[in-house]
Design a protein that fits this description.
The protein is of the alpha/beta class and 160 residues long. Helix content is 21%, strand content 16%. α1 packs across α3 (103-112).
Length: 160
Amino acid sequence: MRTGTYKQSEVHKEWFVIDAEHAVVGRLAAEVAKILKGKHKPSYMPYLDCGDNVIIINADKVHFTGLKCDLQNGKMYHYHTGFVGGLKTRSAGDILSGKYPERVLKMAILRMLKKTAQREKLMGNLRLYAGAHHPHAGQNPVVFDFASLNPKNIKRVQKL
């Protein structure tokens, strides 16, 4: 692959599937944001959508380091309803045990990308699934082994 200037029609996009079971949220989000942006390619252009498509399975089985998943003093997510006094707060543990546990990883990846108009286009290249199955077998995704990049990427679960 040559380096230089590219047009959007010359960009080749691949599909990657990542298993997020026992993965640390921040490390996984940083790596996925890099893949979505295309910074892992020699053909990276900051003004083009030259990143790849990413499928993340088992997004409900991610882990936080430290006490971030603590229900009382852990990591808190704030949002506002738009009404007076409508500031709501939920902990990361509540969201992971709730109806949509993949939102924790989606918010982490979204906040790793720059706040530009291109961010929503890049997030369109991301597919998150709470279970182990995905409907994108027709795209022939390549398995991206996130755990083997660094031993700190996976949190070792202690058995009682």
